[in-house]
Design a protein that fits this description.
188 residues; mainly alpha; 80% helix; rod-shaped
Length: 188
C-alpha cells in the first residue's frame, strides 16, 4: 500500500467529468434583438410632431378637384341664368351670382378640411401606437431570449455543481477507504 494517498480511477473519472463541464460554460449573452430595439426606440423618440398639409393629402386633392369642377359648373350656370334674365348682357349681377355660386363650393371644400385633418391625426396616432406595440413585442422577445440564456447558465451551473458533488463524494470515499486501510495496517 502506498504511503501517500492517490486518487483511484473512479475519482479521476469524476474529476475529469467535472473539469470537462467547466469548459462548456455558456458564453456571454449576445442579444439578437438589441439592434431592432434601438432602431424602434429611435423611430419613436425622433418621430416628428403631427402636422397636417392639405396639399399633400390625396383625399383633399380629390375633394378640391371635385368642388372646383362643381364650382366652375355652378358659376357658369349662374352666369348663364343671370345673363338670360338681363337679356344676354353680361351684367354685374350675373358676375356676382357667378362668383357666389363658385364661392359656395369653395366654402364646402374648406368645410372638409377639419374632418380630413382629424382623419390624418388618427392615422398619425395609429402609426405611433403601432410603433409602441412593435417595440413592446420586440422587448418581450428580448426578455424571452435572455430568459432562455439564463436557463442555460442555470442548467450549466447545476450540472457543474452536481459533477463536483460526485467528484467530492468519490474523493472522500476513496480517501476514507485509503485512510481506513492505512490505519488498519498500522494497528496490525
Amino acid at each position: 500500500m502506498a504511503s501517500t494517498w492517490k486518487p483511484n480511477s473512479q475519482t479521476n473519472n469524476a474529476w475529469n467529468t467535472y473539469a470537462a463541464g467547466k469548459k462548456d460554460k455558456p458564453g456571454a449573452y449576445v442579444s439578437n434583438w438589441q439592434d431592432e430595439l434601438d432602431s424602434l426606440y429611435g423611430q419613436i423618440e425622433n418621430r416628428p410632431d403631427f402636422a397636417y398639409d392639405m396639399n399633400g393629402d390625396a383625399m383633399y386633392q380629390q375633394y378640391k378637384d371635385m368642388y372646383t369642377q362643381q364650382g366652375q359648373q355652378a358659376s357658369q350656370d349662374a352666369m348663364g341664368m343671370a345673363s338670360a334674365r338681363t337679356g344676354g348682357f353680361n351684367s354685374s349681377v350675373a358676375q356676382t351670382a357667378s362668383q357666389q355660386a363658385y364661392q359656395g363650393y369653395m366654402n364646402q371644400l374648406a368645410g372638409t378640411i377639419p374632418g380630413l385633418e382629424n382623419r390624418a391625426y388618427g392615422r398619425y396616432q395609429d402609426q405611433g401606437q403601432a410603433l409602441l406595440d412593435l417595440y413592446g413585442i420586440t422587448q418581450q422577445n428580448e426578455q424571452n431570449a435572455y430568459g432562455q440564456y439564463r436557463d442555460q447558465v442555470g442548467d450549466w451551473q447545476a450540472d457543474r455543481d452536481f459533477n463536483y458533488g460526485v467528484y467530492s463524494d468519490q474523493r472522500d470515499f476513496n480517501y476514507g477507504k485509503w485512510n481506513d486501510d492505512r490505519v488498519y495496517k498500522l494497528n496490525k
